[in-house]
């Protein structure tokens, strides 16, 4: 069986190139404009991975009995490509996304591959579309990259697909971590979360840790109900003790002080395989462990040293800390929302307000966001910022 | 917003009709041959349901960022159309499937509709394709009907799709409840089940009760592992007490005697919304309650009266009953596998053998199967067998 092999890539250039929308335009906020090309790789159960292609972006055709339309044999990644302030094009820790896609693929009976080959395809794709769609004249902008794997074989029996398509598209995407949508009233900073009541996103023994479609569609009803009630995201709880897992499609962090006035950055652990192992989550943890310990030069009166803790924690603990004035701040991390401060959590019909530092963001969230932005946009040279060669 | 309206149906007849495969042929076992036409109905968030069409069966085209390919915004139904021994074409309780599809659709943020209109579309579809694909010369045969709803709008943001496609196809399908695949060695009767170990299919607060794609793809890995070990289906357990939920994509029934030697037919309840409310499951329960009570003319030395019980029960209870020789039989019910006897359950690496009545099937399973077949194929006239008018 053939493994995925980026060296077999062939490229067909589009004859009808699209127009790059203005940054922060309505078109960008619609999140439907893709770049000129897409990567496609077919897998079949007889020979494995076929030769990859970069070809003009366009519609997919598939059988009405394609597995992915009935049985959610599908997984994806969300990542971004950044146009740096130094003029360079960068991916952020693409090795993490590529490895996670392999894991997600296996979880829904789709084929695996060498993640390094996928990273090569991402770079080749951005070498083709990056210069036009992220022009050097627009430093500090990004495109959203969506690698996906779908079982497109005709397979109405409940079994693994015999044919699969891996594809990658690049989507013009707004900065959801700041800015307000053009033409709408400015929103107060900070996201308001609604703690889930009856609906449960994921469960031990399930697939909450994998980036598979099956984690998303079933969550939309709760999200829509939350939005109707004036909340931005659902904070997903688990179990009779209201364990905090993740929020919307992001990881959740809280900074609080213990009763002994020790400051902690707390997030849910990966062990039970209930939450997604976010690339931004991991990066926040690594940076915080490295730069927010005793003796760090980043410490100030607002940014005091803290201990980084991955453990199960509950809404009851958050509620208690809130009553005792021990909450420092909270934020979400993820590719889509990046680092976004949380201003309130509704838990059992009670509104828990979360401090917001200087009013626009908690201090830690702002600092972590700056650190990550500096890496993504080349203000500092860091191994996490992987440069894409351009011609 | 327009509701689904079958009276707006338009029909376009295919110019390239297909060939109907021989019953039980290799082609039928491949489950890829569909009839000449398909039903399609578009829904958009501006006007609701558009006019339905019956058109030539063919490929679907959709955007690479269609919601259903990434976020499992998809649900479906499984049902059959039967060519009766009286020459008539019948659906089996189609109102149940149509209502369940409405429920499933809402669970993944897809639009709802009047289920009666869907039933009319199913009948119109089979009026068109039934006479050719289920010829009167082949009484006792069936086609598998697959209504499905997919979010095919371009929607890479995590929100409800703005455009949706409802479609129905008819697939040539083998009789999985009996017969062996042509060209392969005959299988001993009865399915062997492997009780799930770490993987959990569904949980309270999740979506196990809805027929959504998200319940299927993530279960395939367990199924494939089970098959490698020589088992036909996974018996899905839940919780630290090993509650029995459902098996494969079927409901699970056990007949046992209590310690007081009372005979019971037991299956998991619907209350926790963890298992699918199978149409066959409900029909088995209704028939058993009606025909297997004291005084029934169906009772014999093998078919003794029993009490029908929907309650949580565990593998530990099954294990105990097995050790004490109290298990009478077990079977699965569902559209795909119909009524299929179970011959063994592997639980914690111990093989629990289940009695098989006359060797080919438990007595109750055989009787319930006969009763249902008689209704489906018109050997008896019953309100559950809904005749499709043909020209």
From TrEMBL, chains A, B:
InterPro entries: Aminotrans_IV (IPR001544), Aminotrans_IV_CS (IPR018300), Aminotransferase-like (IPR036038), B_amino_transII (IPR005786), BCAT-like_C (IPR043132), BCAT-like_N (IPR043131). PANTHER family: BRANCHED-CHAIN-AMINO-ACID AMINOTRANSFERASE, SUBGROUP IIII AMINOTRANSFERASE. Belongs to the class-IV pyridoxal-phosphate-dependent aminotransferase family. It catalyses: L-valine + 2-oxoglutarate = 3-methyl-2-oxobutanoate + L-glutamate; L-leucine + 2-oxoglutarate = 4-methyl-2-oxopentanoate + L-glutamate; L-isoleucine + 2-oxoglutarate = (S)-3-methyl-2-oxopentanoate + L-glutamate. One of its GO terms (molecular function) is L-leucine-2-oxoglutarate transaminase activity. It comes from the Eukaryota. This is Branched-chain-amino-acid aminotransferase. GO terms for biological process: L-leucine biosynthetic process; L-valine biosynthetic process. PROSITE patterns: AA_TRANSFER_CLASS_4 (PS00770). It comes from Hyaloscypha hepaticicola. The keyword Amino-acid biosynthesis applies. The modification N6-(pyridoxal phosphate)lysine is found at residue 211. One of its GO terms (cellular component) is mitochondrion. Its cofactor is pyridoxal 5'-phosphate. Keywords: Amino-acid biosynthesis, Aminotransferase, Branched-chain amino acid biosynthesis, Pyridoxal phosphate, Transferase. Its EC number is 2.6.1.42.
